[in-house]
Design a protein that fits this description.
Number of domains: 1
Shape: globular
Number of helices: 6
């Protein structure tokens, strides 16, 4: 189970309200400062009301239980695991299925110059 679309839309509204990072040619980009976005989420009354709602739930066959991550946990993880400048797709990835999260994590490792890892994801 993934985050309900209306919750994700509230988070997108906050993302859209954050000032865009200006690129080298002085044009606005689709990127924002991660810390500004995180602070805006924490300061938004509607997002605050959703912090303990489920962002993602998945059955864990090892424990025979559901693994649940709240919106708060997903946002804190996003703040800790992403680069300083993020786009909306980076945010969405933190509310998606674990296979996509793994792919995102490994692609971030490549961007940061760490050991390259080949990943083959089944559709």
């Amino acid at each position: 189970m993934e985050i309900p679309p209306e919750y994700l839309q509230l988070i997108k509204d906050v993302f859209d309200s954050v000032e865009r990072v200006i690129d080298g040619s002085h044009r606005s980009s689709g990127y924002v400062n991660r810390d500004d976005f995180f602070a805006a989420c924490l300061g938004d009354i509607q997002v605050q009301a959703l912090m303990e709602e489920t962002a993602f739930k998945q059955f864990d066959p090892k424990t025979n239980m559901d693994t649940i991550e709240t919106i708060r946990q997903a946002l804190y993880r996003l703040s800790a695991e992403t680069r300083a400048v993020i786009c909306w797709l980076d945010v969405v990835k933190f509310f998606s299925n674990p296979t996509y999260k793994l792919y995102f994590f490994l692609t971030q490792r490549r961007r940061l110059g760490r050991k390259s890892v080949e990943v083959h994801l089944g559709q």
